[in-house]
Design goal:
disordered N terminus, mainly alpha
């Protein structure tokens, strides 16, 4: 399937970004970032951030999505604009989630989850850059990479025990 046929799945990835990169201050300063927290506390705080971040990003992307989908289909350019904006919004939200003190329990799964989210944002950036250069093959390869990352996000989110973070990828992953 070419880039044109993937526009819908691409926009689903952007719709999921807020779940990946959830934000909202955790209230902790730099000293708290060095201290671990319990797994239950980490999940509670991260899920709260994910829900707030998802709502915020969806609200900001809604006008773009509505304008782009007037005919029920996204053009490649519209899908790329949505993904570009989604990545811009998700990046600082992910940074906020990364600032939450990590639990000692399941730390590896937490790190896998955060890394897959960073990689997703970078892959979205590369998809847009490839499209802008006219390199459809590279853009399609990055789309495929994003689909694989969605599985990794779902796996890691489940292993950590999130209820909000990463949950939409399970519904949207191929």
């Amino acid at each position: 399937m070419g880039l044109r046929g993937r526009a819908g799945s691409l926009s689903m990835l952007v719709g999921s970004l807020p779940l990946v990169a959830c934000g909202g201050g955790d209230g902790g300063g730099p000293d708290r970032a060095e201290q671990g927290v319990s797994l239950a506390e980490y999940v509670k705080r991260a899920d709260r951030l994910c829900l707030a971040g998802r709502n915020r990003v969806r609200a900001e992307l809604a006008p773009l999505q509505e304008a782009a989908a007037e005919d029920g289909r996204f053009t490649r350019a519209e899908a790329m604009q949505l993904n570009s904006e989604g990545a811009k919004l998700a990046r600082p939200l992910l940074e906020e989630q990364e600032a939450i003190p990590k639990p000692d329990d399941k730390r590896s799964d937490v790190e896998d989850y955060l890394k897959a989210n960073r990689d997703t944002i970078e892959a979205l950036d590369r998809t847009v850059e490839s499209f802008e250069r006219g390199d459809v093959d590279e853009a399609n390869a990055e789309l495929q990479r994003n689909r694989q990352l969605a599985f990794e996000i779902t796996r890691a989110a489940g292993a950590v025990g999130f209820k909000q973070c990463g949950s939409e990828f399970g519904k949207n992953a191929p």
